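can u do me a favor
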């Protein structure tokens, strides 16, 4: 051990030194961005426990940045200057739209990516002092991942010392489930789905009619508009019926559970107690929890129904709202491929419509990252590729149909 520690550290040549400095600069920027992100979230957090967790994460990121800065100076590199926003990632469009819960999930994913990135650097860096820093940072990042995972899943002991505390624990548990599905993000998801459906369906129609008629604006506009109206009405009515069915299923399940409680309450209590035991509560804790819950028969029945359907009454969609949202968003998406044909005709109209539609595909795909944790460019490219394949196939089929029917060349 002593002999190894006495060995001189190999010196980097100019080429490798510049390569290592570039990597260390990137690491420093990432840690500073993380520091500002967690600091901002701590300042805005109202829950004391979460605020303390964010402060701890911010301090760790700042400490990591200092380690990288010291190594950069030791290698003779320039003093690093932070290039990101003062709020880090806290104020990105995706995080603002998704709320705190989705932000935490993104940060959890970022921590896992950082662990993988640093692990790869250990193999590739070739600078022993930097590798020692990496090993320390990786250990901290693993703890960060666990901390974020705990915050996301609200892992905390259920205080069941008294019936009043059991009631409070239940309220917190139900509130945590509500927060897992923020209303703003759900609305964004419905709108994106509608735009995606309208854009995809009418882009296929426009491509096919363009191929069959060599971009005849009159035919494309007629077919596209009729298709847009049909898609919007279909989506709206489908959303209405789906939301209405959800409520009918919930009401039916609620009635069945109420009947079960009235006919055999002891069995209903046992079912609910076992469901909490499966989640980790001891039999005594679960029985105590159910005992307190059963004092309010309506709440008891509602909880049983929730266990069966994995949804709450407050989480059900409103049929009329779903219908309007689905129809309007579909109509907006469906209008995009048609617009160029109001101003152009022939091949120019076909080309412009294709470019505009593919750009819209990319934008819609990128927008999906607001409600998922995929990167915006990956989601956008995937959507664009699907749209391009659809457009080419329907255009070629349109040409074939046009020749067969005599409406084309």
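np, heres the sequence
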């Amino acid at each position: 051990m002593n002999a190894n520690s006495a060995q001189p550290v190999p010196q980097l040549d100019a080429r490798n030194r510049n390569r290592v400095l570039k990597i260390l600069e990137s690491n420093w920027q990432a840690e500073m961005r993380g520091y500002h992100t967690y600091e901002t979230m701590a300042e805005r957090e109202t829950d004391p426990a979460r605020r303390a967790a964010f402060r701890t994460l911010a301090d760790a990121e700042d400490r990591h940045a200092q380690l990288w800065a010291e190594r950069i100076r030791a290698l003779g590199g320039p003093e690093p200057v932070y290039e990101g926003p003062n709020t880090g990632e806290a104020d990105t469009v995706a995080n603002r739209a998704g709320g705190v819960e989705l932000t935490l999930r993104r940060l959890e994913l970022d921590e896992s990516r950082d662990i993988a990135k640093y692990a790869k650097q250990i193999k590739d860096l070739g600078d022993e002092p930097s590798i020692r820093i990496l090993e320390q940072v990786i250990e901290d990042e693993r703890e960060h991942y666990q901390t974020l995972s705990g915050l996301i899943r609200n892992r905390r002991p259920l205080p069941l010392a008294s019936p009043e505390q059991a009631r409070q624990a239940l309220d917190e548990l139900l509130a945590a489930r509500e927060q897992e599905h923020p209303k703003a993000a759900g609305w964004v998801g419905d709108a994106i789905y509608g735009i995606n459906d309208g854009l995809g369906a009418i882009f296929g129609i426009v491509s096919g009619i363009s191929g069959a008629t060599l971009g005849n604006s009159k035919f494309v506009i007629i077919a596209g508009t009729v298709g847009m109206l049909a898609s919007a009405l279909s989506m709206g009515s489908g959303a209405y019926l789906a939301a209405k069915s959800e409520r009918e299923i919930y009401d039916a399940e609620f009635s069945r559970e109420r009947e079960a409680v009235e006919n055999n309450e002891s069995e209903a209590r046992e079912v609910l107690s076992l469901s909490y035991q499966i989640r980790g509560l001891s039999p005594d804790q679960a029985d105590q929890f159910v005992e307190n819950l059963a004092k309010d028969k309506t709440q008891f029945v509602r909880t049983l129904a929730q266990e069966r359907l994995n949804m709450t009454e407050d989480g059900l969609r409103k049929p009329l709202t779903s219908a309007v949202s689905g129809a309007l968003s579909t109509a907006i998406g469906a209008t995009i491929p048609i617009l160029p044909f109001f101003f152009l005709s022939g091949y120019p109209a076909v080309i412009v419509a294709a470019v505009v539609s593919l750009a819209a595909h990319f934008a819609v795909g990128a927008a999906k990252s607001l409600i998922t944790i995929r990167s915006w460019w990956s989601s956008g490219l995937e959507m664009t590729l699907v749209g391009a394949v659809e457009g080419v196939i329907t255009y070629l089929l349109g040409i074939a149909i046009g020749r067969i029917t005599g409406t084309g060349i």
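The chain has two domains: 10-152, 169-244+309-405. hope that helps!!
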